[in-house]
Amino acid sequence: MAWFNHRNLESIDLSHNELYLVPSYLPKSLVHLVLVGNNIERIPGYVFAHMDPGLEYLYLSFNKLDGEGIEPESFFGAYHSMTEMCLDHNQLIHVPLGVSEMTSLHLLRLDNNRIRYRANIYRVFLLHVYRQHAFPL
Predict the structure, then answer these.
(1) Fewest CB within 10 angstroms: 37, 52, 59, 124, which?
(2) Closest by alpha carbon to 19, among 42, 39, 44?
(3) Which own/partner pairs from 93-100 qualify as long-range (CB within 8 Å, at least 24 positions apart)?
(4) Residue ranges covered by each domain of the chain
(5) What is the pLDDT of residue 124?
(6) pLDDT, tens only, 28-82
């Protein structure tokens, strides 16, 4: 991709581009990624692993994520840096794997999906509360 070697590029907005997966070869310096209103069905494993200091904001609202296309390694590299993630208006049936590992997450939007098991959302909420108040698990 044209932006891969840009050392100072921190934000990319690729909204409404008919993408079907989160693009690879994103800049190492990227902090803010907006992919709203595409046809994204898949977040490849390790797609964020090379980023330094790490992706902080990921907006994937209004896509076609259903959980099948989110691998256990999809968010590898963003576990400690991600602060906001919007996955609203997709087709998710459960909270994606890896979300509970995100230690800096302050905002998680999951509205307008197909999540039926509230226990999954409650577990993510409890992990967030425990981390905020330093309670032992």
Answers:
(1) 52
(2) 39
(3) 93/66, 93/67, 94/67, 94/120, 95/120, 95/121, 95/123, 95/124, 96/65, 96/67, 96/70, 97/70, 97/71, 97/72, 98/70, 98/72, 98/73, 98/74, 99/75, 99/124, 100/124, 100/127
(4) 1-137
(5) 58
(6) 999 999 999 999 999 999 999 999 999 999 999 999 999 799 998 999 999 999 9
Domain 1-137, CATH among 4.10.320.10, 3.90.650.10, 3.80.10.10, 1.20.120.530: 3.80.10.10
pTM: 0.84
Longest dimension (CA), the chain: 46
Q: Is the peptide bond before 136 cis (omega within 30 degrees of 0)?
A: no
* Spatial contact of 35 and 57, defined as CB atoms under 8 Å apart: no
> Contact, 69 vs 91, CB < 8 A?
no
Q: pLDDT tens for residues 90-103? A: 999 988 988 988 99
